[in-house]
Amino acid sequence: MSLLAAFEASSPALALGPTLEALPSIEIELERQYALDPGRPIAFCRMQYRDREGLVRTLADDDTIDEFDRLSETERGSLYRLQRSETDVIDAYREWVDAGGELLACHGSDGSWAVEMRFPDRDSFGRYHEFLASEGVSIELQRLADGDEGRRRGSRSALTDAQREALTLAHEYGFFEVPRETELSEIAAELGISNQAVSERLRRGQAQLIDDRLVE
Question: How confident is the model over 63-67, as a mean pLDDT?
Fold first, then answer.
């Protein structure tokens, strides 16, 4: 029976890791990935960020990316085609392919990747997990489940540490009371991030809780 694994991974040496660190409020959705050369996979990513020129500058400075092109623009964000560099980047693609893994979902925000994958068994996932750890990747395991049943129950709805921290702090400060007992700026100052970043972190966390608790 296959194994479903949901986890959070962060490292400046992962593909787009520097961009995620530089732009904490960015939203990146990996839509598709393939490789004619396993050492340089090509990814199609949907990116949402308020400053398009700032995003382009950040991508140009990202050593984990060799080439990138903006293909389209919609209300869901910009679709980019990116080719990973051969150096300065962890070869995670080749490793999970060799382990028999399948990438089901991959979302980047708050400086890290939220990943959902399927592996043939626990041993194959264990090898991949050990590889990431040996490369210095920070890993937070969200869920392990046998077969497709685990995915049907919604592993992607798990809160990240950053979302949980922001929601907990907002609750403790009375942000959700009517009338509010604190301003967004106070929560942002406590977390050391911008008002925009904390607002988006709260919004994503609330959306995930709704999906987990209310949506069948």
Answer: 94
